[in-house]
Predict the 3D structure of the following.
Amino acid sequence: MASGLRSSSSSSSFTTAAGGGALSSSGRFERQLHGNGSSSSSSSSSSSAVSTQGGVSFGQTHLPGRSKAPSSRRSVTPNSRTNSGSDYEEDRGRVRVAVRLRPKNAEDIILDSDFADCVELQPELKRLKLRKNNWTSESYRFDEVFTETASQKRVYEVVAKPVVESVLNGYSGTVMAYGQTGTGKTYTLGKLGKDDASERGIMARALEDILASVSASDCVEVSYFQLYMECIQDLLAPEKINIPINEDPKTGEISLPGASVVKVQNLDQFSQLLQIGEANRHAANTKLNTESSRSHAILMVYIRRSVHEKVEDGITSWEKVPRTTLSGSNAIPLIRKSKLLIVDLAGSERIDKSGSEGHLLEEAKFINLSLTSLGKCINALAENSPHIPLRDSKLTRLLRDSFGGHCSARTSLIITIGPSARHYAETTSSVMFGQRAIKIVNMVKLKEEFDYEGLCRKLEHQVDHLTAEVERKQKLREDDKYKLEKELKECQDSFAEAKRNLITRSEFLEKENTRLEVEMKDLLNELKCQKDHNDLMSEKAARLEVNIKCSKQHQLESSTYQKVLADTTQMYEKKIAELIKQLKDEHAHAKSVEEQLNAMKKLLNDSQKTIQGQKEVDELTVKLQEMYQLHGQTLSELQSLKSEQEGLLGEKDKILYMNGNTKASSTFGTRIGSQKTNSLRETLSGQRATIAKICEEVGLQKILQLLTSEDSDVQIHAVKVVANLAAEDFNQEKIVEEGGLDALLMLLRSSQNTTILRVTSGAIANLAMNELNQGLIMSKGGAQLLAKIASKTTDLQTLRMVAGALANLCGNEKLHIMLKEDGGIKALLEMGRSGSNDVTAQIARGIANFAKCESRGINLGQRKGRSLLMDDGALGWLIANSNNSSTSAQRHVELALCHLAQNEDNVEDFISSGGVKELVRISVESSREDIRNLAKKMLRSSPTFRTIKAEKY
Ligand code: ADP
Ligand code: MG
């Protein structure tokens, strides 16, 4: 709202500007606003009635004096009526005077119908013409000229609003209406506008603006009183009828002790106050038997505003105060006190003309005293007179601030006039009053005071706050102190504890240190010993290396010896075998000779008993002697053979001794020596034991290496040793692990040597006894190799070995398919061509193994379908060989046929090949009861066999 006011004021011709200021001894800060610098000099000389700081300033008026108005009229917009910049500067502080012409009333219309108006307004020129008669007229210029159509709003904005704004900014201000009774003073100032808001007068509008501009902390108060016959009566408390005027001797400020001062909160409340005031004024005038036109009504509005950091008039009051003493939040707050006077003056007409009768002249003079005094003062001020008779009346005393008082204010005067020529004299008088007043220039001062009370309250509040804060902090500090002391105590305790622990710990560490030092010494000694030992060991290692070299050399040599030994051993074995045979023959011969001898003896005895004749006895004696002789010869032959054998053994021992293998030779020798008459089989097992020992000494790896020797003799001997080793269960896996199987298969694949092939086949047959090895042999193509050998060789021993190997493989059902696919079964059966019983026995064993595995698979439900043997013609072979002379072969053939018969899927083959007949035969003729029973069972269990058997047999 304040900004709204300012913006409105910019279009007003009543605008003022700020001037200088000074801090008074009373702490009041005052600022002067005046028209020009020269005015201040005249103020000091002419304001004897007021303080030196705040003297009234009567500046030189620059108002255009009487001048002829331009004859031409121009139509202008309202805005064009605003002052130019230069006027604005020049007219600062000057009393603003406007003229308002009341519209014609009924009386005017009736009474002046024959007369022309005496007033002519030229608002665009701000001029008023007074026509005395048809040929004489005077023109006067005012700050504003309002025609009879001027609105209340515009009158307020032009006349009063700048004053109100100025008051809100801390300056005092006065708005006065002067004029003849009935010209509209009360209408202009005091109209309430209850029915029509547009009719509201200056009082209502001013309060409206003020209330809208102030903040909650500001204060707006009003007093309302009237002045009649030099008596001041409170219109808000009409019982107060003679209120004195007090003047502060120091400041010269005017106050009305006892007058009601009512704080205004809102516009409604103010309207009510005005209404009460009007009613009281009317009642008082009735009581005093007077008319309101004879009394002056004065509305005083007191405004008290706190000064914040806002800029007013371009300068804040703070800038004028020494900041060193008033800094920060403790700076003394400033308040601005200002006062707005709205004065509805009594009618300006001469008393005798007012129509109030019944008054004495003196009384009439008294009635008019105040107004007359005002006129005199205005004259004096206008004429720049050295003496202004302000003290002559109460009105002038009250208006001292408005017309050059201590707090000289912005003052606006509105002269109300009527149009009627009948009142020409009064109108002229009013116009002239205005013309004089317009010359007055006030020194406008800003009145600011330090709000010590406010500051005091604020400081007390701060002190209270700080005291509480100090107490709070003190309490907190005490608490902290207590807490810190407690913590300190705890720290000291824990420190002492830590110290104790540290001492204990350091003692322990010292002990530990001593112990460790001792330990370290011991360790160092030990280390030294170890080092010595190491040196010793490295010496030994060096020596051992030399030894290893030597032994390698020795080994090389020994292998040559071994070869020789093996050859010799074989040779001797052969010889031993021959000798044993010879020995056996000799034994048999000796035995038969002995038997003959015994028979002879018996015969002799019988002969002697019967004594058939001396001749016969002599003949028998000769025969006996011959027999004895023969026996003796045989015995001597036997003896010589024994000695020859012993010689040979001695020679063998010698050779073994030469080889450094005294242990083996002694064992061998002992064995041979102690078992001179043991069977060949025992000799063979002895041989194996010997070979095992040799193997132990030489190492399996080395023997296996010899298998790859380029020398076929070495290969033969090596493979023989391996074959013998493979006969033992515990060697089988070891040989395979050490790569023996691969080496043997390689020999089978590459060698053309019959012996090698035979012995190798035997070795593989031995290895094939082990289930684990069976799989390996198959996976390494062993079956194919064996089949190949079988097809090539005619050597019966080789064929027996190959058949044995394949027969062993047949006992592993997991390998059946592979064995068949690799041609193993076919090869096995084809070896039957050799006609050898031994080979046939192996073939039969293989087929029986195979068939047994299949029948077991069928029983367990793991297998189905026709036997794998059928395609290769096994059944035919079995039937063909069922009458083999070898018992072993026959047994296996019979078993194989029984097992195959167990498989229902083989039945057709049996029928087509005549197998059923064979089964029936076995069930009857087999030498073994268990086989007979088995065959019977087969024939019984199969429904097909049962039928066939029933039909044919
Ligand atoms: P005063 O206070 O000067 O004696 P008033 O204000 O009582 O005069 O006015 C006299 C009469 O004239 C009132 O009835 C008032 O309504 C009327 N009057 C005065 N001025 C105007 C105006 N400008 N427009 C309309 N009526 C007015
Ligand atoms: Mg009036």
